[in-house]
Amino acid sequence: MTLASVLIVAAALIGIGLYGALSQQSFVMLMMGLELMLNGGLLAVIGLWANTMGGAPEGQLLAIIIMAVMAVDMAIGFALVTAVYRKRQADVTESLTTMKH
Amino acid sequence: MGLTDLLFFALSAVAIVSGWRVFATDSMVRASFLLLLSFVAVGLIIVMLAAPYIGVATIFMMTVEMMVMALFMVMFMMNPAGLNPMMMVHQHRFSIVAGVLAFAGLTVAILFTSFPGIPVDPAAPVVHDLGIELLGPSMLIFETAGVTLLATMIGSVILSSRSGRFGLADQGSRPPGLEPDGEPAGRQPEQGGGGHHHHHH
């Protein structure tokens, strides 16, 4: 379990998440892609903390911040999905065209 | 190859394969449980990386979060049971290229970087250190995260409530009186506007 192998797993998760966030039409599936990218980021942060920082606690603090970002992302994302559905009856990205020029 | 390496490779395979299957399954509920599986595998890898608190917290948080997500799937989304084939994608080829490019670019960056090799001491009290850091030198950052979460709660309630953003929050509702059978407290709803008159006197 070298640092490079951990980081490559994290890179794979980020790649899959990016694919999902860009390709999915449904809002909720799109958010799953974002979560997967944050998951990869979390793994990379902890991998770097465990192997390059000698156990300085600030690395774990950054991981906790990432977890807070995940929670904010999910809560605001679902609230937006609810608001958009209530207003437009829309649950796919193609239904929202008002900001397209 | 030791037992640790085998476990790491198995967990990595679970994390990556289930992460990929999230976007390949027909059922959105199944997709959220696959994402949960991916998160749990990553959490266990984090525990193996000498960060038990973060790993366990990830597993707990993600379990609850994916339960909420599965609920939203059932509430909102088409085809939650996966009875029909589902492939709802746009710009598919571009997305695949972007994902592969991100992975390849990051991998090249990882392989060509020489990281400082200062591993964490296995005997170090990492959870204790984290607690001291959270409530000591970095308390302001920790508290900022807490306030951000509070703002998130308020924002999500405002965004998802039926009124609020699109009208008076108390329109059509009557707060209870300050004394039994007394006048309702607070601002009165507009007379004749809402059409709800509950005055009995």
Automatic annotation (TrEMBL), chain A:
<dbReference type="GO" id="GO:0042773">
    <property type="term" value="P:ATP synthesis coupled electron transport"/>
</dbReference>
<comment type="similarity">
    <text>Belongs to the complex I subunit 4L family.</text>
</comment>
<keyword id="KW-1133">Transmembrane helix</keyword>
<dbReference type="GO" id="GO:0050136">
    <property type="term" value="F:NADH dehydrogenase (quinone) (non-electrogenic) activity"/>
</dbReference>
<keyword id="KW-1003">Cell membrane</keyword>
<dbReference type="InterPro" id="IPR039428">
    <property type="entry name" value="NUOK/Mnh_C1-like"/>
</dbReference>
<dbReference type="GO" id="GO:0048038">
    <property type="term" value="F:quinone binding"/>
</dbReference>
<keyword id="KW-0520">NAD</keyword>
<keyword id="KW-0472">Membrane</keyword>
<keyword id="KW-0812">Transmembrane</keyword>
<keyword id="KW-0813">Transport</keyword>
<feature type="transmembrane region" description="Helical">
    <location>
        <begin position="29"/>
        <end position="49"/>
    </location>
</feature>
<dbReference type="GO" id="GO:0005886">
    <property type="term" value="C:plasma membrane"/>
</dbReference>
<dbReference type="Pfam" id="PF00420">
    <property type="entry name" value="Oxidored_q2"/>
</dbReference>
<feature type="transmembrane region" description="Helical">
    <location>
        <begin position="6"/>
        <end position="22"/>
    </location>
</feature>
<keyword id="KW-1278">Translocase</keyword>
<dbReference type="InterPro" id="IPR001133">
    <property type="entry name" value="NADH_UbQ_OxRdtase_chain4L/K"/>
</dbReference>
<comment type="function">
    <text>NDH-1 shuttles electrons from NADH, via FMN and iron-sulfur (Fe-S) centers, to quinones in the respiratory chain. The immediate electron acceptor for the enzyme in this species is believed to be ubiquinone. Couples the redox reaction to proton translocation (for every two electrons transferred, four hydrogen ions are translocated across the cytoplasmic membrane), and thus conserves the redox energy in a proton gradient.</text>
</comment>
<protein>
    <recommendedName>
        <fullName>NADH-quinone oxidoreductase subunit K</fullName>
        <ecNumber>7.1.1.-</ecNumber>
    </recommendedName>
</protein>
<feature type="transmembrane region" description="Helical">
    <location>
        <begin position="61"/>
        <end position="85"/>
    </location>
</feature>
<comment type="subunit">
    <text>NDH-1 is composed of 14 different subunits. Subunits NuoA, H, J, K, L, M, N constitute the membrane sector of the complex.</text>
</comment>
<keyword id="KW-0830">Ubiquinone</keyword>
Automatic annotation (TrEMBL), chain B:
<feature type="region of interest" description="Disordered">
    <location>
        <begin position="168"/>
        <end position="201"/>
    </location>
</feature>
<protein>
    <recommendedName>
        <fullName>NADH-quinone oxidoreductase subunit J</fullName>
        <ecNumber>7.1.1.-</ecNumber>
    </recommendedName>
</protein>
<feature type="transmembrane region" description="Helical">
    <location>
        <begin position="96"/>
        <end position="118"/>
    </location>
</feature>
<keyword id="KW-1133">Transmembrane helix</keyword>
<dbReference type="InterPro" id="IPR042106">
    <property type="entry name" value="Nuo/plastoQ_OxRdtase_6_NuoJ"/>
</dbReference>
<dbReference type="GO" id="GO:0008137">
    <property type="term" value="F:NADH dehydrogenase (ubiquinone) activity"/>
</dbReference>
<dbReference type="InterPro" id="IPR001457">
    <property type="entry name" value="NADH_UbQ/plastoQ_OxRdtase_su6"/>
</dbReference>
<feature type="transmembrane region" description="Helical">
    <location>
        <begin position="6"/>
        <end position="24"/>
    </location>
</feature>
<keyword id="KW-0874">Quinone</keyword>
<keyword id="KW-0472">Membrane</keyword>
<keyword id="KW-0520">NAD</keyword>
<dbReference type="Pfam" id="PF00499">
    <property type="entry name" value="Oxidored_q3"/>
</dbReference>
<comment type="similarity">
    <text>Belongs to the complex I subunit 6 family.</text>
</comment>
<feature type="transmembrane region" description="Helical">
    <location>
        <begin position="138"/>
        <end position="159"/>
    </location>
</feature>
<comment type="function">
    <text>NDH-1 shuttles electrons from NADH, via FMN and iron-sulfur (Fe-S) centers, to quinones in the respiratory chain. Couples the redox reaction to proton translocation (for every two electrons transferred, four hydrogen ions are translocated across the cytoplasmic membrane), and thus conserves the redox energy in a proton gradient.</text>
</comment>
<dbReference type="GO" id="GO:0005886">
    <property type="term" value="C:plasma membrane"/>
</dbReference>
<feature type="transmembrane region" description="Helical">
    <location>
        <begin position="57"/>
        <end position="76"/>
    </location>
</feature>
<dbReference type="GO" id="GO:0048038">
    <property type="term" value="F:quinone binding"/>
</dbReference>
<keyword id="KW-0812">Transmembrane</keyword>
<keyword id="KW-1003">Cell membrane</keyword>
<feature type="transmembrane region" description="Helical">
    <location>
        <begin position="31"/>
        <end position="51"/>
    </location>
</feature>
